[in-house]
Amino acid sequence: MTMAALPPDWPGGFWLHWGVFVVVIFVFVMATIMGFIWFERRAMAIMQARLGPNRAGPFGVLQPVADGIKVMLKEDIVPAKGDKVVHWLAPVVAFVPALMIFAVVPFQGGAILADLNIGILYIVAISSVTTVGVFMAGWASNNKYSLLGAMRQVASVVSYEIPVVLSIVGVVLLAGSLSMQQIVMAQDIPFILLQPLGFLLFFIGALAEINRAPFDLMEADSEIVAGFHTEYSGMKFALFYLVEYGEALAISAIVTTLFLGGWRGPLLLPWLWFLIKVILVFFVIVWIRTTVPRIRIDQLMALAWKFLFPLALINLIITAVEILVWPAGSLWVLVPINIAVMIVLVLLWSRFFKLGWGKVEV
Amino acid sequence: MIGLDIAFWILAVVGVIAALAVVLLGDVFRAALSLVLCFLTVAGIYITLSADFLAAVQILIYVGAISVLIILAIMLTRDVQRGSPSNRLRLPAFLVAILFFGGVAYALLNTTWQVSSTPPLEPTTPAIARLLFSEGGFILPVEIAPILLLAAIIGAIVLVREK
Amino acid sequence: MLADYGYIGLLLVVAIFFAVTTLLLPFFLSFPSRLVIYFRRFTQYLETHYPFLVRFIPPLPKFPRFMQVVPYNPNPVKSSTFECGMETIGTAWVRFNFRYYFYALVFIALDVLVVFLYPWAVELRGLGLFGLIAALVFIFIIVIGYIYAWRKKVLEWK
Description:
The complex is a heterotrimer.
Chain A: H1 13-47, H2 63-72, H3 84-100, H4 119-127, H5 130-140, H6 144-175, H7 180-185, H8 191-194, H9 196-209, H10 221-224, H11 235-259, H12 270-291, H13 297-325, H14 334-352
Chain B: H1 2-24, H2 28-48, H3 52-75, H4 90-109, H5 124-133, H6 139-160
Helix pairs in contact in B: 1-2, 2-3
Chain C: H1 2-29, H2 31-49, H3 76-79, H4 98-151
């Protein structure tokens, strides 16, 4: 092995780089999740013509802190006949991958913990480990509704994983590399203009994967109580809650890196651009939550298999043909073509496929 | 390097213990979880060998898809909480396993392994692509693979189809 | 490159440590309340098995109220499974619905397709037309299975 591939041993470049970036990642993730919790409740409230939290601190800014303290003081009720070790480990297995995603997210030009050659594939792989955590939670609760909720959630995550991964392949075709930093550097034109259909598919699929509205069928209180985390109380429930917002943050970060140009922007500091774009994407996510009604499980599955998947394949083929016909140089000619293709495909497809109208069987 | 050695030993020990736990644990669900841990340690060992694409694919397919399949099968099976029934073949199975292990260990230790003198290619993914998809590469196996997948999909459809 | 994975491995260790600490924090805070319950169980056990030892047990000091921050009072009703107020009948297994297994199987097949498409996408500019035709053949074979599934109406959730 060449010397460049070996890690420098012991203090010096290795540990300093790691220490600084681990602190940056933790502070960023925790602070932004707290901010997102407040932001979502406040924005949802204003969109629904009411005030949000406004008692804990100025404008309710300390509300997430109050929630955190409250949840720590709750009693930890463990179901009697379930598997206690698995019950305890499930939140850990669900939480750790959500945090590991941020190791490859570029905050700035050189500011990334590990610029892997397989950056985006690493993210896809790590986020598939949370399904095992969901299964653990559903099984260890010894409650047939938790089990059912866990199985349904996994079925829906698995169905939406394919269109999401296929739309990422479109971005990789344009960038020519799997590394996140290189994808950002290749975006002289933000990929949202070059891959409008890909952006739409990725966004819808990612929203469904993290079970946020309008796809939050699994957690809606009127449906199956709280799904796989019915039997959790106290800090373990707080970890699942953190996982939900952590994944929303991860999705926003990935969308900014893949489609909106990451940290690139004209005047401000790069990491400030990154933060602004992440908050913008999260705002759109909250906006969709307050606007669109919840969809049923059969509509959910039909959307994934009959609408998103074939469109993702067609997007992939069209992008591959395009980059072979116009190999390098100015890509501006692709923008109107792709936008036209997207509009035509979405309209045609929505006319032709039927949403599931079957009975919903348990 | 010392970091690499520590990582390899930790991964190898955890992997062997997890694999043993899969076979020896009584609770089927915990055995499935140890299998997941074993897959993860194998992915870690791929990384110590500089095969990063392969490690990511291992986690994506084995932990993300095949573990889901195994755990779904466990959850949908009745009476699985009683564990697997004991049988009288434990001792012969143990002897066969020891013999097999002895044979494999002997073969491993007595082979002269050729170590390549060139370092591994830095971004491994384009190299894999060139090997798989270019003319003169492994294009035939790549085209046979979707036929196998088609067979799997059709099998699944036959299982589920309404008569 | 291996240094990058060293970073990630160490981050994994720190993340697991962080999650475990977050779970252990209320556990330790609930220790005063837990000690009361454990002590009660211990004295009950002694009373039933070794009644003559009971006089040797010192009484548990009463913890001040501010130390009992996180409560711990398990009782059978709280630890039973939640079914919207009804009693549970039978153990927790679900009637076999092939649907879940089917989606997982199709997911595996399509996941392998995706795994082949990633290196193809990275190197397409270098592979040219031959690579494009190869991948199109690949996708076409999988699409045959997909159209068959659609026509047989197995993609709907019933």
